[in-house]
Amino acid sequence: MRKRLNSWSWRMEGTTQTDAKIRTEYGTDSSSRGPGCSLRHFACEQNLLSRPDGSASFLQGDTSVLAGVYGPAEVKVSKEIFNKATLEVILRPKIGLPGVAEKSRERLIRNTCEAVVLGALHPRTSITIVLQVISDAGSLLACCLNAACMALVDAGVPMQALFCGVTCALDTDGTLMLDPTAKQEKEARAVLTFALDSVEQKLLMSTTKGLFSDAELQQCLAAAQAASQHVFRFYRESLQRRYSKS
Amino acid sequence: MKETPLSNCERRFLLRAIEEKKRLDGRQTYDYRSIKISFGTDYGCCMVELGKTRVLGQVSCELVSPKLNRATEGILFFNLELSQMAAPAFEPGRQSDLLVKLNRLLERCLRNSKCIDTESLCVVAGEKVWQIRVDLHLLNHDGNIIDAASIAAIVALCHFRRPDVSVQGDEVTLYTPEERDPVPLSVHHLPICVSFAFFRQGTFLLVDPSEREERVMDGLLVIAMNKHREICTLQSSGGIMLLAEQVLRCSKIAGVKVAEITELIQKALENDQKVRKEGGKFGFAESIANQRITAFRMEKAPVDTSDVEERAEEIIAEAEPPPEVVSDPVLWTPGTAQIGEGVENSWGDLEDSEKEEEEEEGGSDEAIVLDSVTVDPGVDGPSAGSRDAPIVLSDSEEEDMVILEPGKDPQTIRTQTVRAKQEPVPSRKPARRRRKKRPAQ
Amino acid sequence: MTEAAAVAAESLAGSKARAARTVLGQVVLPGEELLLPEQEDVEGPGNAGERPLRLNAGVRSRVRVVCGPGLRRCGDRLLVTKCGRLRHKEPSGGSSGGGGVYWVDSQQKRYVPVKGDHVIGIVTAKSGDIFKVDVGGSEPASLSYLAFEGATKRNRPNVQVGDLIYGQFVVANKDMEPEMVCIDSCGRANGMGVIGQDGLLFKVTLGLIRKLLAPNCEILQELGKLYPLEIVFGMNGRIWVKAKTIQQTLILANVLEACEHMTADQRKQIFSRLAES
């Protein structure tokens, strides 16, 4: 109980901080914006599959991922956990069979989801997220995270916050690019992917590739936090549209 | 996960409806559900929706050495995957009977019908040929997987473009899409599967069964045919006896259906090609139905990142500098070195229960004790001699640490720590140890 | 620039806890925090002078609010855990100064058993004294053969595997196997029991079921005018319907399925067209 209260008061501080941040962010002149600092066009369709309990297809530019969620559903006895739901993530590549790269991404996505899904509300059940890569044109992991989040929301799995994925790339002269394309990722010196939560834009997961300094890491994180505001706004608007008739 | 069972009332209702020539979704007996074909941005990528059944197809290619007995033929490979996304009962990585049956049928329909000219896939006879791989993923299962998969496979093959190659003498040059336009495969004809479900021992028949209809059917007849009315493969399963006239009637219906579907495929392909040529927008993003309230899109959004540098600097300035690391290694004995200061040994203050476990491990696993002992011959004598006495209960790791202590007599330190550990739980443990030891001896 | 300002304002609203009263009927997203009415008073500046007068102020501020699906207590606020429209129901009778019930109306498909819910289940197995019933939750519910009207050890109910059961949950919580009965507390069937062999079963979202079961639901009244029908709604998203002919049953099922995403006007058009044909 004490722990709960602590984290709560701390959260209050966090909120006021982000408020201040947003204000300064939009107060400054936006003409100095770099060419790479924009998100590609986003599209999302929910509930497009009839069989899973929740589904979403998420597009970021030409990158596209389809997600299906089952849960809380029955669980195999071998995987049963007595005090919380068993969360499983399956990532399927488009060509060939899943390999080590997919397993590693599955793990990253699962850890992110475990941080926000309230699994303790449904003990001895399974929550399965199946992700299918439809096309990879850069920032694939971020797109997987976004698709997983929208599918979880569609399935009505209880969560304490939403999450989103943002990929940043640093090219050879240190220019920062958000939501890079496959070509930009290939030419980049470093590629960083972050998962952020919607309440305080806190970091849920990060994975990096390549060389970068600590200052650049912080820059990328700050840029990802700014970008996450747009993603969450996109989530909100698409969900408002979805519930517009009910 | 298990499939939701089919109730008796659904089964009865479905069969009675079929007898009255009615279907759940309002179709007629010979009607297909609506077919939607959309293409991805890559070549050879397509999505086929047959009602709510959805299949994703992707064709890829690579240069491989040909099969020994077919030196001048390219290789065609089909792989249909039943993803758990499609239905809860599909388990990942399991070769179910249904999957094997569907893959075999696809191969017979598309490879054995020689619809793709495999000889044109040969680059250097006996050395290099193209292997064309067709990956099909079932994304949503609402019945009639085979028809949707066969359409997806042939559409993806027609849409696919492979890199151009040229051969000059022994030299094979592979061109990127920028250098030379990729070339399409030569497709002779388009074989398409048409499924017929039979009910009441073949008295009633339905085209394109849905998932619930499949659950109550008695038998299934699949006819693969092209638009020239050539039957490419024919399979009857489920163990029903069909009359020759029934099969003939089915093949006639299949002919009509195949003609319709072929026309649709060609239109879809032409449309996609036109859009690509004109430089318009293409890909799955364009095929999302915008009017649906479940769909939403956002145009390219600029993100203001002008202040990230300042914010990063702030955070770094606030952060504590990382502690200095001592990096000169200390060599204790030959083969043993230490870098840094290490952390304080916390093995001594274990909790009671934990300690017992540790001790048991240390005591029973003699190999470890001996291992560590051989490092320093000075410790060997006393520790070996006092094995039956309670002192030996210290675990092996602790002895390791003791050995590395410089300038002190290792033996005295060890007995000290052991005594400190002994104090909270006296007298009980030696007895336990002895009990445990006896059967071993 | 104006757009940027609007964004800033919206983000502000998004990250700060809003009062539950002001967002009633609006779409809420997981992670949002909602303030309860009494807390608004406490935090608002207007009532600051009144507070010291109340001796048991601390007790007063503990409002009795019931959190329905999609909401959880988080400290003294409500945390939204599901996406949907926020709904509120005033406490019945207005006694004990309760804050009523808040819940989130979502378009979920997966059912989670709730005590007291009436559901349609499919019998999957008979084992000894109990039937195993599939209700669409994470595990099958158990149903004793004695939990039918007039059932005794001698006089067992006639239930086969694959039959449909309309029953009520008496035990349903996250840690235990759910248990169903087909009798009310007086031992009467009260409409529950085995559903007949005819008719059609189909699945819709849980939100649509709640909409249809709401008092004075227009859809049902309009349906009733169309054909004479027998209909059973299970809170687990299953509907069983039976009309005079197969054709009529099919029409009813398809209309009900389509109702979810239709506005009232579109629905009226469809019903009038059906009535003509």
UniProtKB/TrEMBL annotation, chain A:
* Biological process annotations from GO: nuclear mRNA surveillance; poly(A)-dependent snoRNA 3'-end processing; rRNA catabolic process; rRNA processing; U4 snRNA 3'-end processing
Localisation per UniProt entry: Cytoplasm; Nucleus, Nucleolus
UniProt key word Iron-sulfur:
no
Pfam entry (one) = RNase_PH
Keyword hit for Nucleus? yes
Residue ranges occupied by any Exoribonuclease phosphorolytic domain in the UniProt entry: 39-158, 162-226
Q: What is its main location?
A: cytoplasm
Q: Name one GO cellular component term.
A: cytoplasmic exosome (RNase complex)
Subunit relationships: Homodimer. Component of the RNA exosome core complex (Exo-9), composed of EXOSC1, EXOSC2, EXOSC3, EXOSC4, EXOSC5, EXOSC6, EXOSC7, EXOSC8 and EXOSC9; within the complex interacts with EXOSC3, EXOSC8, and EXOSC9. The catalytically inactive RNA exosome core complex (Exo-9) associates with the catalytic subunit EXOSC10/RRP6. Exo-9 may associate with DIS3 to form the nucleolar exosome complex, or DIS3L to form the cytoplasmic exosome complex.
Please state which protein family the record places this protein in: Belongs to the RNase PH family.
Entry protein name: Exosome complex component RRP46
Supply the source organism for this entry.
Answer: Phyllostomus discolor
UniProtKB/TrEMBL annotation, chain B:
Q: What GO cellular-component annotations does this UniProt entry give?
A: cytoplasmic exosome (RNase complex); nuclear exosome (RNase complex); nucleolus
Q: Which GO terms describe its biological process?
A: exonucleolytic trimming to generate mature 3'-end of 5.8S rRNA from tricistronic rRNA transcript (SSU-rRNA, 5.8S rRNA, LSU-rRNA); nuclear mRNA surveillance; nuclear polyadenylation-dependent rRNA catabolic process; rRNA catabolic process; TRAMP-dependent tRNA surveillance pathway; U1 snRNA 3'-end processing; U4 snRNA 3'-end processing; U5 snRNA 3'-end processing
A GO molecular function annotation here is: mRNA 3'-UTR AU-rich region binding
Which compartments does it reside in?
Answer: Cytoplasm; Nucleus, Nucleolus
Which superkingdom, per the lineage?
A: Eukaryota
Record-annotated Exoribonuclease phosphorolytic domain positions? 32-163, 189-254
UniProt region (Disordered), positions on chain: 335-441
- Return the Acidic residues bias intervals: 349-364
Q: Which Pfam families match?
A: RNase_PH (PF01138), RNase_PH_C (PF03725)
Q: How does it assemble?
A: Component of the RNA exosome core complex (Exo-9), composed of EXOSC1, EXOSC2, EXOSC3, EXOSC4, EXOSC5, EXOSC6, EXOSC7, EXOSC8 and EXOSC9; within the complex interacts with EXOSC3, EXOSC4, EXOSC5 and DIS3. The catalytically inactive RNA exosome core complex (Exo-9) associates with the catalytic subunit EXOSC10/RRP6. Exo-9 may associate with DIS3 to form the nucleolar exosome complex, or DIS3L to form the cytoplasmic exosome complex.
**Entry similarity comment:** Belongs to the RNase PH family.
Name this polypeptide is given: Exosome complex component RRP45
Organism the protein comes from: Phyllostomus discolor
Give the organism's phylogenetic lineage.
Eukaryota, Metazoa, Chordata, Craniata, Vertebrata
TrEMBL record, chain C:
Record Gene3D superfamilies = 2.40.50.100, K Homology domain, type 1, Nucleic acid-binding proteins
By its UniProt entry, which InterPro entries does this protein fall under?
Exosome_RNA_bind1/RRP40/RRP4, KH_dom_type_1, KH_dom_type_1_sf, NA-bd_OB-fold, RRP40_KH-I, RRP40_N, Rrp40_S1
GO MF annotation list: RNA binding
Task: State the compartments where it is located.
Answer: Cytoplasm; Nucleus, Nucleolus
> Which keywords accompany this UniProt record?
Acetylation, Cytoplasm, Exosome, Isopeptide bond, Nucleus, RNA-binding, rRNA processing, Ubl conjugation
Q: Please tell me one Gene Ontology term that the record gives under cellular component.
A: cytoplasmic exosome (RNase complex)
Which positions fall inside the Exosome complex component RRP40 N-terminal domain?
26-107
**From what superkingdom does this record's organism come?**
Eukaryota
Q: Which GO terms describe its biological process?
A: CUT catabolic process; DNA metabolic process; exonucleolytic trimming to generate mature 3'-end of 5.8S rRNA from tricistronic rRNA transcript (SSU-rRNA, 5.8S rRNA, LSU-rRNA); nuclear polyadenylation-dependent rRNA catabolic process; poly(A)-dependent snoRNA 3'-end processing; regulation of gene expression; TRAMP-dependent tRNA surveillance pathway; U4 snRNA 3'-end processing
- Any one Pfam family here would be RRP40_N_mamm
Say where the protein is mainly found: cytoplasm
Residues covered by the K Homology domain: 199-246
Q: Which proteins does it associate with, and in what oligomeric form?
A: Component of the RNA exosome core complex (Exo-9), composed of EXOSC1, EXOSC2, EXOSC3, EXOSC4, EXOSC5, EXOSC6, EXOSC7, EXOSC8 and EXOSC9; within the complex interacts with EXOSC5 and EXOSC9. The catalytically inactive RNA exosome core complex (Exo-9) associates with the catalytic subunit EXOSC10/RRP6. Exo-9 may associate with DIS3 to form the nucleolar exosome complex, or DIS3L to form the cytoplasmic exosome complex. Exo-9 is formed by a hexameric base ring consisting of the heterodimers EXOSC4-EXOSC9, EXOSC5-EXOSC8 and EXOSC6-EXOSC7, and a cap ring consisting of EXOSC1, EXOSC2 and EXOSC3.
* Family, similarity comment: Belongs to the RRP40 family.
Can you say what this protein is called?
Exosome complex component RRP40
